[in-house]
Amino acid sequence: DIDDAGHKYCLELELEDVLDKGRTVLCAAEVLYPLGSTSTAPEVQVTAQGELRSTEEADKEFYNRIRSLEKELVAENIPDSHGNVPPELEPIHLLAWAASGYVIWQNSTENTKFHLAQVQHVKQVKRSDEDLQFDYVLLLHEMVSQEVIPWEVTVLWHPQRGARVSRD
Amino acid sequence: DQVLHIVPETFQQAQHLQLLCSTLMLDLWKPLLPEDIRAGEDLHVRVPAPLVQEVKDSLDQHMISYRVLIPDVQKLVDQSMPRERSSHRQVSGGYVYTEYHPMEEIYQWMTQIQKNNSELVTQHFLGKTFENRTMYYLQISQPSNKTKKIIWMDCGIHAREWISPAFCQWFVKEILQNYKSDPKIRRFLQNLDLYVLPVLNIDGYIYSWEEDRLWRKNRSPYENGTCYGTDLNRNFNSSWGSVGISFNCSSDIFCGSGPESEPETRAVAQFIKSRKSDILCYLTIHSYGQLILTPYGSTTKPPHNNEELMKVAKEAAAALTGKYGTSYRVGSTALILYSNSGSSRDWVHTIGIPFSYTFELRDTGTHGFILPANQIQPTCEETM
What we know:
heterodimer; A: alpha+beta; Nuclear Transport Factor 2, Chain: A; 2 domains; five-stranded antiparallel beta sheet; three-stranded antiparallel beta sheet; 2 helices; 8 strands; globular; B: alpha/beta; Alpha-Beta Plaits; Aminopeptidase; eight-stranded mixed beta sheet; four-stranded antiparallel beta sheet; 12 helices; about 20% strand
């Protein structure tokens, strides 16, 4: 679909929970890439039909585990060179994925195609409030230029409030 | 490991042997130090198994004659000493195809494959990489008195695409393991020879194991050694330097200083040129994306045999999907992926080889280049 203010794409998507395959949610989305400007993120509107499964218990378990760590969590190369992720780092990996979605959205144009290639580094930062904070260095692969770009992202997470990204 | 007996005849030969022994850090049995190597005097040197072929190639190239004093050092050691179990896991068979292997193990694997299948397989010298490593391809050929057409497949032109060399190794294993029991494979080999280059960009591949998992290019230095690597798949002589490239060395799609500026590119191009009248099909294996790409990348103008190219590719994609449901898209690079010039696939087609395809294996971005080893088997099975 072509507009005057940019290019608009209307999409129908099926969302599948990686951890709960078989259950899908139908979504409709509208993406507007602004004309000319490549420094503005595309505008996105999404509506979803149906619900994804509840992750309340897993969230609480992860939250408590990290809060009770004596030393702040630090990890590198997720997954490792052979594609392996140790089970206790899987939630860190998934959070990185979600954060990369935000970064990709903010930096996409009609001529880019980004994927998260690897988490180069992650460091937990203990906070006085109730949020968990993770400082990531994410490696994003861009298909057209074939470049792998490191990106520093700070992610705040809370079981009820979910994930929020603040950039350095 | 082998021990070689060499008597250098000239000063030059002695010098070359000194260099060889010190560079490769070979285990000198006589004399003890490289500087004591002299013309006219006996040299006994132990060469580790993975380097044997390379050292012999080098001696051949310099016309230095040698004799194999001990063909298998381990056997000799075992005979003189009792041992509980073999630590040569890879060499004595039982190669694990569902794991990623470093280059040293792939070199050993090639030697073993030829040894265990000598009626069908021969290992051949193709050329040298920038860092002077030897590039070998395997020829799988049923002996016959007629000349057969050739299908060429290369893997690992981009260092980080580990699933690609894994597939080449798997492919060779499948063909050889099922040759006797599968009439399709036998019929195949009656009329065609298979040439497989398991790792094209050896220096880059090693670098991705030791330094940077996401490295793509080769390792040739530019700008006074401050910048490394040419994208070998932008370095071929097909509309070189026109589109989808960078002239900046620090880019991942740096096309080199000129078409075929890189030794790896030249090694492949020279060979393909010399046999082009016999090569029916060229396959180059990459990841990721799940695509079967046809020429061209530099223009959307279709190649002369586009209909046939597409028909075959579509059938291949359908067969692939039939195995595990993995969906592949088919089309020209310029239309379904991005513009690029200097690709091996395009060059091969422009010199007259009718069937030329790039395969982009699993996945579509979830794991990207770092495809977990547990996907090696299904990826290879469906691609097979």
